[in-house]
């Protein structure tokens, strides 16, 4: 499998422009006949353009809710989210999203799947097809443009989903546990490829994961969330040189970051003490 290779092309093909994300005192309550669910409480985050932020927290702490609000797919109950100073009030072409399930359409070829969003907008295919092909090639899928999703492995499908999210030159890339369903080897591969994209583009990225190691490996900053109602318990800057190799996970500095995050979860009663 090829890896992402052409830095110049990738910078041109993937993200465009800068995205400064500001999340200010965001609360989210879901109302239902069975009562209210307080999913998020007072979330404040300032993410400068180009930063990669990993969000890690226990199941149900509101990570996906936060991502959906940032994506404009849901509205906070209170508080505000701004992209480059503009309030986010709905979905935007500035934002690319990758979910845990790749959501590829089985009746469309790989190329047609990557072109899905622009097709939906009625934009001429010819204008986007070259970019779509370039992205697929960069992700090592040059021989799969005309195959169907069911002919691909889970890792290849998730690469396609990432290409689809990047097609529209988003400024902001939102990823909701994109690699959770993959085996450890494929996950390592995709972590490296994602790092290359981040280094070579101006994409601001919010990456949700349950995996502490993955969170630290990828991020400039790790946000640790407490259980519901989701609150930020810790913001940890990750000062490891880039590009990072997988072997960095064996370094003393990485072990210290892991200890700090684990300790935060232990103090919150989410992880049992390892001492
Ligand atoms: N549309 C909805 N209506 C009502 N409650 C919801 C809705 N979406 C999420 N919730 C509730 O809000 C809380 C946070 O859910 P969310 O999916 O954001 O958590 P999460 O941290 O992403 O969980 P996981 O890691 O398991 O994916 C949960 O208690 C969930 O049941």
From TrEMBL:
Pfam families: ABC_tran. Residues 21-252 form the ABC transporter domain. The keyword Metal-binding does not apply. Keywords: ATP-binding, Cell membrane, Membrane, Nucleotide-binding, Transport. SMART domains: AAA. InterPro entries: AAA+_ATPase (IPR003593), ABC_transporter-like_ATP-bd (IPR003439), ABC_transporter-like_CS (IPR017871), ABC_transporter_ATP-bind (IPR050166), P-loop_NTPase (IPR027417). The keyword Protein biosynthesis does not apply. It comes from the Bacteria. PROSITE patterns: ABC_TRANSPORTER_1 (PS00211), ABC_TRANSPORTER_2 (PS50893). GO terms for molecular function: ATP binding. Belongs to the ABC transporter superfamily. This is ABC transporter ATP-binding protein. It comes from Pigmentiphaga soli.
């Amino acid at each position: 499998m090829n890896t992402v290779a052409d830095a110049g092309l990738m910078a041109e093909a993937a993200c465009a422009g800068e995205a400064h994300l500001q999340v200010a005192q965001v609360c989210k309550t879901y109302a239902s006949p069975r009562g209210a669910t307080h999913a998020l409480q007072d979330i404040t985050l300032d993410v400068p353009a180009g930063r990669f932020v990993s969000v890690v927290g226990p199941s149900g702490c509101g990570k996906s809710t936060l991502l959906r609000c940032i994506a404009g797919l849901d509205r906070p109950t209170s508080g505000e989210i701004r992209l480059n100073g503009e309030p986010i009030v709905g979905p935007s072409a500035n934002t690319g999203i990758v979910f845990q399930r790749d959501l590829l359409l089985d009746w469309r070829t790989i190329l047609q799947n990557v072109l899905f969003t622009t097709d939906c907008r009625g934009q001429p295919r010819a204008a986007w097809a070259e970019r779509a092909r370039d992205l697929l090639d960069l992700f090592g899928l040059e021989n799969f443009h005309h195959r169907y999703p069911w002919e691909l492995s889970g890792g290849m499908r998730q690469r396609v989903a990432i290409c689809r999210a990047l097609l529209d030159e988003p400024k902001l890339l939102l990823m909701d546990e994109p690699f959770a369903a993959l085996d450890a080897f494929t996950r390592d591969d995709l972590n490296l490829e994602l790092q290359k994209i981040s280094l070579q583009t101006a994409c601001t990225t919010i990456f949700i994961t349950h995996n502490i190691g993955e969170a630290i490996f990828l991020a400039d900053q790790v946000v640790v969330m407490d259980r519901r109602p989701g609150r930020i318990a810790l913001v940890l800057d990750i000062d490891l040189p880039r590009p990072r190799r997988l072997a960095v996970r064996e370094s003393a500095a990485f072990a210290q970051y892991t200890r700090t995050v684990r300790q935060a979860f232990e103090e919150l009663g989410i992880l049992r003490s390892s001492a």
